[in-house]
Design brief:
By secondary structure, the protein is α+β, with helices and mostly antiparallel strands. Helices cover 22% and strands 34% of the residues.
Length: 319
């Protein structure tokens, strides 16, 4: 059984100030037809901006193309910028219209579409619903209003975008086999560059390639108060070919500051591709370095994790 009751729409009052801005933008256009389109676009964008303001969701009119006089004159723009999230298309709908035309200009940060219904009285409009960019195909030229989602789904979608924006994006793993071709990622130095004359003297095969990265472990107190203790370390990684598809990996951790001893209970962990602990080494009270050596296959991935107190620093690698 299906219900014939239409979902509720949200009515937004349109202020005299909004009409004043819309008339100003319309007067700048080359003809009356373009002026009317800009007038409606401006009010549609303003209505969505006001709706989001009620909900304490940040939007910025001045950053929007619809508030840019050059872009407004050249294109059919009705976008509203949500800083850090993207752009909403706020498309006006006139009485009797069942579809909206989708903008021809591609926008990689487009969030979706909010059709705005205009009536005979221009003192209020209705927000009809929401369609995300995934609801339409790249070749689609019009959006049927009957396919819109409820307006509440816009809020859910924005919440998901905010959560994704707060989630750190994984960085590409350090490719150790590229080191053998002398291709090094940023931040990985020659041992001599970091340690200078203090470089530990260790013997490796001639074909081995080694690099070191400076790592600082800071607890929350050290971040807030620089005089608090932080630990300056060096992660030293060496790769040695053993066969065409097998490599020796040698990991070492040294202090780069004073004292030369590592902090007690500092841990060096090797994690598998699934995040399981493969090997764990812990510093004693007078240890000046930690090390672990193992064999890895070509294209095998692993992680190295340094742990001190409640601080974790992880580096990802692929052979």
């Amino acid at each position: 059984m299906s219900s014939s009751i239409a979902p509720p729409r949200l009515t937004i009052p349109v202020s005299a100030k909004a009409h004043e801005v819309a008339r100003k933008f319309a007067a700048e256009q080359i003809d009356a037809h373009k002026g009317k389109r800009v007038y409606l676009n401006t009010l549609a964008v303003w209505a969505v901006h006001r709706y989001l303001k009620w909900l304490y969701i940040e939007s910025d009119l001045k950053l929007s193309n619809s508030w840019n006089p050059v872009l407004r004159a050249l294109f059919d723009v009705a976008d509203l910028v949500l800083p850090g999230l993207g752009r909403l298309e706020c498309r006006p709908v006139l009485p009797g219209e069942k579809t909206i035309a989708l903008p021809l200009q591609a926008s990689p940060d487009r969030i979706g579409y909010v059709p705005v219904q205009f009536g005979k009285q221009m003192n209020e409009v209705e927000l009809l619903g929401f369609a995300s960019v995934t609801d339409v195909s790249e070749q689609q030229e019009v959006l049927t209003l009957g396919t819109l989602r409820l307006l509440d789904t816009l809020l859910e979608h924005l919440s998901d975008l905010e959560a994704a924006a707060r989630t750190p994006q994984p960085t590409a793993p350090v490719n150790l086999s590229h080191w053998l071709k002398r291709n090094f990622e940023e931040g990985w130095q020659a041992v001599e560059e970091l340690f200078g004359e203090r470089s530990p003297s260790l013997a490796f095969r001639r074909a081995a390639m080694q690099r070191v990265k400076r790592i600082e472990l800071q607890n929350d107190a050290a971040k807030a108060f620089p005089q608090e203790q932080s630990i300056a370390l060096a992660l030293w990684v060496t790769i040695s070919p053993e066969s065409e598809k097998q490599f020796g990996i040698h990991l070492q951790v040294y202090s780069t500051g004073e004292p030369a001893e590592l902090p007690p209970h500092l841990q060096l962990k090797v994690l598998t591709a699934t995040g399981e602990v493969f090997r764990e080494v812990t510093a004693g009270t007078a240890d000046t370095f930690l090390q672990y050596e193992f064999t890895a296959q070509l294209e095998e991935t692993f992680q190295v994790e340094l742990v001190w107190q409640n601080i974790y620093v992880t580096e990802s690698f692929v052979v």
